[in-house]
Amino acid sequence: MTATKQVRSGSKISTNLYSDVAGKILSESLGVKKGESITVETWTNGLPFARQVVIEARRIGAIPVLILEDEDAYMDSLKNMPKDVLGAMGKHESNLLSGTDAYVFIPGPPIGAYFLKSTNEERAASTSYSSSWYEAAERAKLRGVRLSFGYVGKDLARLLGKSVDQIVRHQLTATLEADFASINRKAKQISEYLLDNTRCTVSSSDGSTKLDFEVKGETEFEDAIVDDEDISNGSNMTYVPPGFVAKSVNSSSVSGKVKLSPFVTRAGLVKDATLEFESGKLSKWESKTSMDKLNMLIEAVPNDSRKLGTVTIGLNPAMRYGYGQDRFVEGAIGVRIHNFSAVVQKGSLVAGGTKIVDGGKLAR
Asked: Which pLDDT score, from 0 to 100, does residue 144 have?
């Protein structure tokens, strides 16, 4: 995908929609005030939206700076930049973070171009700055949002059978229609049923598979709000659109099978998959239609890391399946295994004897 085509596809979405979403995240997600410093970072495909964030920030009286990461230049650097500095974070970026009150990030590049044009080693090296960036952001106590529509390119859209504009428009509309405060309340309510050592069961809609496990560890809310509590615990960045509640899993406790709905990966669309766990580790996997892609995903994970790490429950009633963020759909049950995640669309989740999700619908 060329940069020109990306900007043109984005331009079909109305400026009013961009402006409305920009205004909502600045006010409701980040609580931006007059005089605050705002950093807006975007890849080429997010530039039309980033412009509106800058405009809305200035209307508030905030002081924005815009950073552009060009996709073509980035792909060139993967091949030609000295490997010992590829992915390093410069002191100028660290200093910029230290002086930033709020951060708006539109990521990239789109899924297909990045995966197909780079090696595993190049991708790992190019993102090695990640931990340093988050450490600097935490020290700066900045409030940040990540807009997931930035991951949408023509390759992903083709896999989902939609246009780029359809997917981006849906994500932005689902941001406007979502009640962030309501999602926060629902996340807190559900988290009360996911206390450490609670036994949980995820079952498929037809009853053919059942996965048992205990939850233990970190609880995460994706409600599109960054407040003082988030800053204090280091949760500086939130996804837009929201939302889900996530809970870590005691990996050694996992046993049984889970049947996954279609999910998109860097290897392409996996149309169906069933995973089986024994003694906490993934022991078997099968797919009737996408076995090559499933094998590619799992074989890229070291044996000792083939474990269920997190379970999520989708909370956004405005999100629909097939628009690039299935885990945010209300009633979606998500599972994450090392470097990939997927959802059960019409499944059920019982926690400590209480039904949380029933047939793909929230029961609480």
From this structure: 96
